[in-house]
């Protein structure tokens, strides 16, 4: 091979590595912002003046116009990119997200915000379990170690309220179910992303979720409409920040990061949710909880994907 060819191959490989590094960095940033955007949702659900099913419906429905604009813009910017509509993984993601919000909003009303968020963000454990059972996916040792460290850090965040309390037992159980549905959601969105862009996946799964949640709210809530301007503002914040922002950025991240690692980053939602609960509801953050947050960050760092 001639010298110019060798230089060209080296330069091409360098460009490819830089593109992979940039894509990974973008995925991490998107995941961090997604965790932050979703972490405010428990506090907003508490502040809403409608029931948990109605707030779940409005959370998704009010985000649809923004998600539609995002989808149109994304597809105009990349007209040749794949855009398969309502694929099976997207439909399954919509159903899984419905289950996630159904149990998540109920759990928030029946246990502490710290507990509800911790059990819900145990999704990485379910991603590993369901990934192995359903997809025969294997996880490397570093990721498993990182997962165990994150679980230890998350436990430290809620250790003071984990003692058995009959008044919170149902809420804790609902949050555990939430985590299972969230894990299925991660796997479904991860499977959908290679077939279409993040904007279309998020928009289409949101259509499915909002339709099912409307029926649930219609039959099980005494009223669906909020009764005040502040109530509408809370729901709008849920829709724009937690759903359009949080789930949209999550879809972006899942197109660039391994599914299991992405689910680990969502542990950061526990840290941010504890801070919001402290600011808004006076749920104090102790030294042990702060150390738990540091341990979570360490676990995510250990589990990070390595490049060859």
TrEMBL record:
Q: Which InterPro entries match?
A: EamA_dom, EmrE-like
Write the record's keywords in alphabetical order, separated by commas: Membrane, Transmembrane, Transmembrane helix
Residues that span the membrane, as ranges = 21-44, 56-74, 86-106, 112-135, 142-163, 169-189, 201-220, 232-254, 261-281, 287-303
Pfam families, alphabetized: EamA
- Keyword S-adenosyl-L-methionine in annotation: no
Occurrences of domain EamA (ranges): 26-153, 171-302
Task: Mention any one GO cellular component term assigned to this protein in its UniProt record.
Answer: membrane
**Keyword Endoplasmic reticulum part of the UniProt annotation:** no
Please give the name of this protein. EamA family transporter
């Amino acid at each position: 091979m001639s010298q110019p060819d060798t230089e060209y191959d080296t330069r091409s490989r360098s460009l490819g590595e830089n593109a992979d590094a940039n894509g990974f960095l973008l995925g991490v940033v998107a995941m961090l912002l997604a965790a932050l955007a979703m972490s405010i949702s428990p506090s907003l659900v508490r502040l809403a003046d409608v029931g948990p099913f109605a707030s779940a419906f409005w959370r998704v429905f009010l985000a649809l116009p923004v998600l539609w604009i995002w989808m149109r813009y994304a597809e105009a910017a990349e007209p040749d990119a794949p855009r398969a509509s309502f694929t099976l993984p997207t439909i399954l993601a919509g159903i899984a997200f419905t289950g996630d919000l159904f149990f998540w909003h109920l759990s928030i009303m029946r246990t502490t915000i710290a507990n509800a968020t911790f059990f819900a963000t145990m999704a990485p454990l379910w991603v590993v379990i369901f990934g192995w059972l359903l997809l025969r996916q294997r996880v490397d040792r570093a990721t498993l170690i990182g997962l165990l460290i994150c679980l230890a850090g998350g436990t430290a965040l809620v250790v003071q309220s984990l003692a058995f309390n009959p008044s919170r037992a149902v809420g804790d159980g609902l949050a555990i179910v939430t985590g299972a549905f969230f894990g299925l959601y991660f796997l479904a969105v991860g499977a959908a992303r290679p077939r279409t862009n993040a904007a279309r996946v998020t928009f289409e799964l949101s259509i499915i979720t909002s339709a099912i949640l409307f029926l649930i709210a219609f039959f099980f809530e005494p009223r669906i409409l909020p009764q005040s301007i502040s109530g509408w503002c809370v729901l709008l914040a849920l829709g724009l920040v937690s759903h359009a922002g949080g789930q949209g950025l999550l879809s972006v991240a899942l197109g660039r990061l391994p599914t299991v690692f992405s689910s680990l980053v969502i542990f950061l939602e526990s840290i941010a949710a504890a801070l919001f609960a402290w600011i808004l509801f006076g749920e104090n953050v102790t030294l042990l909880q702060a150390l738990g947050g540091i341990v979570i960050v360490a676990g995510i760092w250990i589990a990070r994907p390595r490049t060859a």
